[in-house]
Amino acid sequence: MLSLTNDGSSAELTELVETNDLTGIRLWLAEHPPYEIADELERMDSHLAIIPFRLLDKDRELEVFEELDPVHQQEILLGLRDTAFHELLEEMDPDDRARLIGEVPAKVATRALAGLSPSQRKMTAALLGYPEGSVGRYMTPETVILHRDITVGRALEVVRAKGADTETVYILPVVDDGRRLAGTVELSELVVSDDSVLIKDLVDILVPRVSATDPAEDAARLMQQANLIALPVVDSEERLVGMLTFDDALELIEAADSEDIARQSGASPVAGNYVAASIIRLARARSVWLLLLIVAATLTVNVMQAFESTLEEVTALAMFVPMLTGTGGNVGSQSATAVVRALAVGEVRIRDLPGVAWKECRVGFVLGIMLACIALVIGTALVGSDIAVVVGVTVIAICTWAAVIGSTMPLLARRVGVDPAVVSAPLVSTLVDATGLLIYFSIARVILGI
Amino acid sequence: MLSLTNDGSSAELTELVETNDLTGIRLWLAEHPPYEIADELERMDSHLAIIPFRLLDKDRELEVFEELDPVHQQEILLGLRDTAFHELLEEMDPDDRARLIGEVPAKVATRALAGLSPSQRKMTAALLGYPEGSVGRYMTPETVILHRDITVGRALEVVRAKGADTETVYILPVVDDGRRLAGTVELSELVVSDDSVLIKDLVDILVPRVSATDPAEDAARLMQQANLIALPVVDSEERLVGMLTFDDALELIEAADSEDIARQSGASPVAGNYVAASIIRLARARSVWLLLLIVAATLTVNVMQAFESTLEEVTALAMFVPMLTGTGGNVGSQSATAVVRALAVGEVRIRDLPGVAWKECRVGFVLGIMLACIALVIGTALVGSDIAVVVGVTVIAICTWAAVIGSTMPLLARRVGVDPAVVSAPLVSTLVDATGLLIYFSIARVILGI
Question: Measured between CB atoms, which of B209, B304, B348 is closest to A318?
Answer without folding.
Answer: B304
